[in-house]
């Protein structure tokens, strides 16, 4: 049932929006904000705006939302390494500004951070453990978290695991790009020594609905958000092969530790999600079940 509650969603031209916006729009009045290009069309108001300029406050004032979901980010370690100033603006300064403006207007902010704030030297990270980001991307997101919390508003910060699902156009999650490669019979090199608590994007969308419905009731702060199963990309791809009928011989396991990167990479960002599950009525799907649903959706498109 549509609540009429108004949600401002930033990052609406990104990889998650293809799945999240239609689910949000079933329940809320959504204003979708894209930065580089206009968001996809749908049952929501689409706005193109540069969040890094001085128009952010005017955008929020004119939209007058009850909830802001900030999915806008420079979200790859390579992009952040190549342009650290842009990473700082988008991943640190913009979240701070959104939290400051929202605090003054009593608006709940739901912000996407990352599991890459963790060092990756252990498993089952909890929110109260020290976060030590290894690269510019993780550090810019970690700094954004700290600055948001300093604003003393109602900010719910979601440390997202690696997400998977389907997309459209050039905004494809890694899983959709992987399916396309395997469908074409291409050999794929994948890391076998990096682990993540992978999360199905539709499950993230239903979490956002639950959080927005109960805005103001969920305590502000940091929450780990991921699935219950931690896998590396080889294991994930093998599950894709079993479900879609692709040959597992197309998967070529490689070790990230054997390769040279400009910055260190966290090896195991597996997260404990007990704090989130205690705070909100939501459960992520079993990984096999989620991949089976993705398979059905892929063939029904």
Describe it for me?
This protein has 301 residues and is an alpha/beta fold. The chain has ten helices and 13 strands. The protein has a seven-stranded parallel beta sheet with strand order 3-2-1-4-5-6-11, sandwiched between helices. Strands 7-10 form a two-stranded parallel sheet. The chain has a two-stranded parallel ribbon with strand order 8-13. Helix 4 packs parallel to helix 5 (136-150), helix 6 (174-183) packs across helix 8 and helix 8 (233-244) packs across helix 10. It is globular. The mean pLDDT is 94.
CATH topology of the domain at 6-165 and 198-228 and 267-285: Rossmann fold
Report Rg.
19 Å
Decide which structural class fits the backbone: alpha/beta
Low-confidence stretches: none
Fourth CATH level, the homologous superfamily of the domain at 6-165 and 198-228 and 267-285: NAD(P)-binding Rossmann-like Domain
**Helicity, in percent?**
25-40%
Helix-strand topology string: EHEEHEHHEHEEHEEEHEEHEHH
Q: What is the level 1 CATH name of the domain at 6-165 and 198-228 and 267-285? A: Alpha Beta
Number-wise, the strands total: 13
In short:
The protein has helices at residues 17-25, 56-63, 77-82, 84-105, 136-150, 174-183, 201-213, 233-244, 274-279, 287-300, and strands at 6-10, 29-34, 45-48, 67-70, 108-114, 155-160, 163-164, 188-191, 195-196, 199-200, 221-225, 231-232, 251-254. With 301 residues, the protein is of the alpha/beta class. The two termini are 25 Å apart.
